[in-house]
Specification:
Elements lengths: L1 H16 L15 H5 L13 H4 L11 E19 L4 E7 L5 E13 L2 E17 L16 E19 L2 E19 L2 E2 L11 E2 L2 E22 L2 E8 L2 E11 L10 E10 L2 E11 L2 E10 L6 E6 L4 H8 L3 E3 L5 E11 L4 E10 L17 E12 L2 E12 L2 E3 L1 H6 L9 E17 L2
Antiparallel strand pairs: 1-2, 1-3, 1-22, 3-4, 4-5, 5-6, 6-9, 7-8, 9-10, 9-11, 10-13, 11-12, 12-15, 13-14, 14-17, 15-16, 17-18, 18-19, 19-20, 20-22, 21-22
Length: 440
């Protein structure tokens, strides 16, 4: 009963906060304070409850029933500036609204037969979001300062998992990933020329656009770990693509003035792409562990995102305006990660890490609602274990490379027609904490 209560509370907390996690691409950079403080170089080291995310083969290393939960508070600090050639000058100078985007993982794992471990996990592998001060966005909101500009894209994964250890040297594992997705957007709907309809309005303001959707998809994770000796270990993981089929509704507040329904049901499918990772960990001496990972995501699967509006009046309207297709043209990305752990004692360990995380989004589709940056991540943390209890704390600082999209380029190059010009900056501070309990 006690284990069930722990798991229910953790699941409720993760579901409450999952939709608003900020990340690069659509994925978070890692889960679990221990793994995060090692720069996410954890594929070969995974041997705790977070293995359901990092490498399910690591679950086979769990000798007794274990429950764990971890949470991260992702605090972005970004800015957006749009400066036009003189004599116009700067027309937008704003910052992201201060928000705390929470994500996490919880799992229970236990041996069920010699060498065989089963687990059930729930975690937030993905999230992307932005929220801007609409009062400063008038230049791209038809002069209005009451338009809300925000986006939230998130994924919660329920992961029943199994792992088997053939020997101390070799283990395999797999998870079924049942994915629940969320997609919310608010922005300026733009204006429409009504003169072809016989009305005297060349630019009729459509006002606020909003949409909200949820959906389900299924995928799997397969992993292995090889430990030929106590001094070295290797790991490899494949997470399959998962297409989430969203359904929900959209609204445009001024459409009823044109005799058109103000809202429409909608459908949209988004594919979370395949993820491949490989890692190695070495122990030069007993107190020191060094790890390194390469992690590749097939973001090129996201070229465009199409939306079907079910209302008969919305379908031709959105098609004629091009609003039923969202160009992305994302590119595959390779992360390189490094971590180090030093044991000050049997109970206390210090950790640090570094990783390079390139943006999936090209300049030609950079925009304020799904912003992407090239990040350099600096991580650090510590872990303490006493008896059946383990507590880990970590922190990551993500330094985003400034991105500049030229207004002239957007105006003259058709390839940049879907980019939002301006100067984008982003830094993210993300503390995390984990707790695990081993049931004897």
């Amino acid at each position: 009963m006690r284990k069930a209560v722990f798991a229910s509370v953790a699941a409720a907390v993760i579901l409450a906060f999952a939709p608003t996690a900020l990340a690069n691409g659509l994925n978070l950079n890692g889960l679990g304070a221990r793994a995060i403080s090692l720069g996410g170089a954890f594929v070969a080291l995974a041997d705790d409850f977070t293995s359901v995310f990092w490498n399910p083969a690591g679950l086979a290393r769990i000798a007794k029933g274990t429950f764990g939960a971890s949470g991260s508070d992702i605090i972005p600090s970004g800015s957006y500036t749009l400066t036009l050639p003189q004599p116009v000058g700067t027309v937008i100078d704003t910052t992201t609204q201060t928000k705390h985007y929470l994500g996490g993982i919880a799992a229970y794992a236990a041996p069920i037969a010699p060498g065989l471990v089963a687990a059930l996990g729930i975690y937030t592998p993905s999230g992307l979001g932005a929220s801007w001060d609409g009062s400063k966005m008038g230049y791209i909101s038809g002069g209005r300062t009451d338009i809300e500009w925000m986006s939230k894209v998130g994924l919660v994964t329920f992961a029943p998992s199994i792992a088997y250890s053939f020997s101390d040297a070799f283990a395999i594992g797999a998870s079924l990933n049942i994915n629940y997705g969320m997609f919310d957007t608010s922005m300026y709907a733009g204006s429409v020329d009504l003169r072809p309809m016989g009305l005297p309005f060349a630019a009729f303001d459509l006002g606020q656009y909003k949409e909200s959707e949820t959906g389900w998809g299924v995928g799997a994770t397969i992993g292995l770990q090889v430990r030929p000796s106590s001094a070295v270990s290797f790991g490899a993981v494949l997470r399959t693509a998962s297409t989430v089929k969203f359904s929900g509704s959209a609204s445009i507040d001024k459409l009823p003035a044109l005799g058109v329904n103000g809202s429409s049901d909608m459908r949209r499918s988004v594919t979370w792409p395949m993820w491949l990772a490989a890692g190695v960990a070495v122990h030069p001496f007993d107190a020191l562990t060094l790890s390194a990972d390469v992690q590749w995501t097939q973001w090129s699967k996201i070229q465009t995102i199409a939306t079907t509006y079910l209302d008969a009046s919305w379908a031709p309207l959105m098609a004629s305006s091009g609003k039923d297709v969202m160009p992305m043209y994302w590119q595959d990305a390779l992360q390189v990660r490094f971590g180090a752990e030093y044991a000050l004692s049997q109970s206390l360990k210090l950790r640090a890490g570094y990783y390079m995380d390139p943006s999936a989004a090209p300049d030609r589709t950079m925009n304020i609602l799904l912003p992407n940056y090239d990040f350099k991540g600096i991580t650090f943390g510590l872990g303490y274990a006493a008896g059946p209890v383990a507590i880990d704390a970590g922190c990551e600082i993500l330094l985003g490379t400034d991105r500049t999209i030229s207004p002239d380029l957007v105006n003259t190059d058709p390839n940049y027609a879907h980019a939002v010009p301006g100067l984008y900056k982003m830094t993210i501070f993300a503390p995390s904490i984990s707790f695990a309990y081993r049931f004897d």
